[in-house]
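SAMPLE LOG
Freezer: B-3
Tube label: C17
Construct: single chain, 126 aa
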Amino acid sequence: MATVEIVSFGFGHAGAPAAHLVLDLREHFRDPHVDPRMRELTGFDRLVRRTVLHTSGVRRLLRASTRQVQAFVAGPSGGRIVVAPGCAGGRHRSVVVAEQLARRLRRRGHEVTVEHRDIRLPVIDR
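STRUCTURE (predicted):
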């Protein structure tokens, strides 16, 4: 199996990392940041995780992304595959999607590493 690296990030802090697959979560999925109760939380907090996973389309995106990674793995070169889910600040949606995608891929036998590039950076004022 290929090694999969997942790097969550926030577009508001810096550009997307070099990746084979970039998932831009900013416009199509509800942002927990707009709820003051969740603004300072991260994707590791239960409330944020539940909110993101109950957003219409997120689970479908996770299934499709899992299939895309498996298509890369099936290619002739295999090797390392980098996936970069990004949201505005890199604290909420991108973290949840990264962790859930890693979980799905590990269940399919892939070696997966996860890095949350911007999770410790300040919340972006919007």
